[in-house]
Amino acid sequence: MNIVIYGTGGVGGYFGARLAQAGNKVTFIARGKHLEVIQNKGLQLKSIKGDYLVNPANATSNISEVKNIDLVLICVKTWQLKEVAEKIKTVFNTI
Questions:
Q1: Confidence of residue 92 (pLDDT cuts 50, 70, 90)
Q2: Between the chain's N and C termini, which has fewer beta carbons within 10 Å?
């Protein structure tokens, strides 16, 4: 599956890393320094269930750069939902 994790914090990072570990193509939507680190060093998951490094990791700040999306996991704060929903909507309106 081609999965987008919109919001690569604690929740999005965890589930995205596990989905990548299971063999899915995962793209992480992040911003700022967090995005830069993921692009340059990958995404490191540390867990009592086992650590995993997604490297190289597909990461961008712009969901419109991702094609053929099968699933989007929205992992942002509640106050960010409206803005994020509008951005996701534009991607699927172009299909």
A1: confident
A2: C
